[in-house]
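Q&A log
Question type: sequence-to-structure
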Amino acid sequence: MNPIRIDQRLIGGGQPCFLVAEIGINHNGDIELAKKTIDAAVHAGADAVKFQNYRTEDFISDKSLAYEYISQGKTVVESQYEMFKRCELTTEALRELKAYCDGRFISFHSTPTSKAGIRDLVEIGVPVLKNGSDYLTHLPLIRQMGQTGLPTVLSTGMATLAEIDDALRTFYQTGNNQLILLHCTSSYPTLPDDVHLRKIPTLLAVFGCLVGFSDHTEGTTGAVVAVTLGACWIEKHFTLDKNLPGPDHHFSSDPDEFRDLVTAVRKTEKYLGNSRIEPTSSEIQSRHNYRLSCVAAHSLPAGHLLTQDDIVFQRPGTGIPPAHLYLLVGRTLKYALPANKVIKLSNLN
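Response status: OK
Response body:
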């Protein structure tokens, strides 16, 4: 799997995991709140922020469809249409937020819901597109994303293996191979026994593309485990304050939690290291200190013919290792050796 470049970062291929603060609709339709949230994501260590540049009419026309959610500790029931409409971003707002991110040196991308939305993102110069789990079966939109030539991220919440396969085939048919799949569970928040992070190595094995994790769990454990299983991209809902009004704030990570996630993931990456089986740099000295050498079991005179009884194995490991005892037995000494002296080949005739 070749790495994919997003702005100045390479994704995959042993590179550090790409960490996305999904602001989504947590700006509540307020551009100034969106900018403050971007600032908080920068300070928390995010590599990127993600928004949603949907048009409500693209996916909801029935204004009677209700949505129930927790906001500021209370259960709220309202029209889905009204809720989403309130948080729409205009093309001008999208351009303003992209420019703001550029000035803060953080990557910006978004989730569109139409060809026009894709066009807006291409025109403002996003480095990557994101397709949401609800749109995984919208194959015409996935085809249009592929045709841009941009790297694209597909979330797989609620999906069957066949649906994922259809989406990938559609994308690859455009000639674009810059694809990242995100394992995802579309419940908010996701309970631990509904996360199923073992799907990550399955997706890697079945589809042979880069795989990440859209994390709807609480805390940092899910992200850390996902990284150990091969995730190269972590996306997590992000809010300036969990107590802000709106459907997503209460389960989103706040700046302190996201900073903890960044710290935990970066420490995990250090623990994972690489897969080469060889002594680490810190173990080179340990080999000298802790390994065993062939040592004189007692005082040995010059000209003595070494037998196995003349040799014991002791620290330090600066001499001939026990595995090479055969190099010594049957040889004669050039010089006398005191007891407990490391035997070297230079001591032998």
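Response note: The mean pLDDT is 97.
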